[in-house]
Design brief:
TetR/AcrR family transcriptional regulator; Arc Repressor Mutant, subunit A; 76% helix; Tetracycline Repressor, domain 2; Homeodomain-like_sf; transcription regulation; Tet_transcr_reg_TetR-rel_C_sf; 191 residues; single chain; 2 domains; mainly alpha
Length: 191
């Protein structure tokens, strides 16, 4: 019974954290505990710091998003085309949680946020490799740099939308066009 209560509390805390941090990146532990229907002591019993709570919420959201992005239709497309579709899908998921990712950037730092994206970035890397092998993705840039560029542009788009410098409705298209111009073999300079 105690274990079941603990699991329910953890689920409630993570759900509340997701909701509140997705609305307000500065949501406090007290606000999250209240929304979860638990006390701060209970919350801190499961998550010893705000950072550990934000980390756990982000890990959960990324795992759920990765399941959504596991699209079998991508396997039948050329690598570059599959990558553009994956980026567009990723943007839709990220856009719904852009404030949560801002909270994570603030609480955890860029390196930890990047570590949490290991699985989705493996998908990106595989599609880039496939596109490179097919001749559609540039090979004159290091693969690791291309993966980092996709990650940086996705998160940069979220920051720009949040700051109202990029229209939310246009962001997905801007993101895909930006990556196409950066990564497509046809955009490679001559020489």
């Amino acid at each position: 019974m105690v274990r079941a209560d603990a699991e329910r509390n953890i689920a409630a805390i993570l759900d509340a954290g997701r909701r509140l941090l997705s609305r307000d990146p500065g949501a406090s532990v007290a606000e999250i505990a209240k929304a979860a229907g638990v006390g701060r002591v209970t919350l801190y019993g499961h998550f010893p710091s705000r950072e550990s709570l934000v980390d756990a919420v982000m890990a959960r959201v990324i795992a759920e998003a990765d399941e959504v992005l596991d699209d079998p239709a991508l396997a039948g497309l050329p690598g570059a085309q599959a990558l553009w579709r994956l980026v567009a899908s990723s943007w839709e998921v990220l856009d719904g949680h852009s404030r949560l990712f801002l909270a994570a950037d603030r609480a955890l730092g860029a390196e930890r946020v990047r570590e949490r994206h290991t699985e989705p970035l493996r998908r990106v890397e595989a599609l880039l490799e496939r596109g490179r092998d097919e001749g559609d993705i540039r090979t004159d840039l290091p693969l690791s740099w291309q993966v980092s560029s996709v990650f940086a542009l996705l998160h940069g788009a979220a920051v720009e939308v949040e700051a109202a410098r990029l229209d939310r409705a246009e962001a997905g298209g801007v993101l895909v066009r930006s990556l196409e111009s950066l990564l497509s073999a046809r955009s490679r300079p001559a020489g």
